[in-house]
Amino acid sequence: TEESEITFGEFKTNRMASEIFWVPVSNPGYWQVEMEDITIQNHRQQLCHGNCQVAVDTGTSLMAGPVDIINSLTEKLSVKNDCSNYKKLPDLGFIVGDHILNLKPEDYIDKSEDGCSVALMTLDIPPPKGPLFIFGDPFLRKYYTVYDREQLKVGFALAAHPQVDRKKQTMFIDLGRGSVHRKHGVSR
């Protein structure tokens, strides 16, 4: 089991496998930021229509989102109950602050002796707080997050795990015009 930690007053670059980027908090009270869209294998799914928000929540063990979007994702991902297509499932990504934050199937699929299912709970939070996604433990294990209380912003970087090659990783994709680590192009 890998160590985990919480640090106050600083962040540790040795825990990051990529550069950190910052996104302003969109709704004080939650560590909530805007999410532009969701991707499957780095292709935009046009599911947010300019109004997706996500709360980055250290107190939630799962990931959740609005019923209609989660149902659409479940349909698009086509996860077989018997896990027969598990090894062929795509990366599932979230566009936040001009970056795609990808999850691998092992991060978003519940796989057990009973079969496979998408591990995204449905949760409808009405406006003005919603529609809202919640990024809990599966996301937080993959991404190093920094919460800046003074400037009300959240920082994201790929977490440094032993199996992550900082030079070859494709989980964290910068859509900006600067340095980009891409395995495949992203369709807009």
Describe this structure in words.
By secondary structure, the protein is mainly beta. Helix content is about 10%, strand content about 35%. It is built from three helices and 15 strands. The chain has helices spanning about 65-75, 105-110, 135-140, and strands spanning about 20-25, 30-35, 35-40, 45, 50-55, 65, 90-95, 100-105, 110, 115-120, 120, 130-135, 145-150, 155-160, 170-175. The strands form four sheets. Strands 2-5-12-6-11 form a five-stranded mixed β-sheet. A five-stranded antiparallel β-sheet has the order 4-3-7-8-15. Strand 7 (about 90-95) and strand 8 (about 100-105) form a beta hairpin. It is globular, with a radius of gyration of 16 Å. The chain starts with 20 loop residues before the first strand and ends in a 14-residue tail after the last strand.
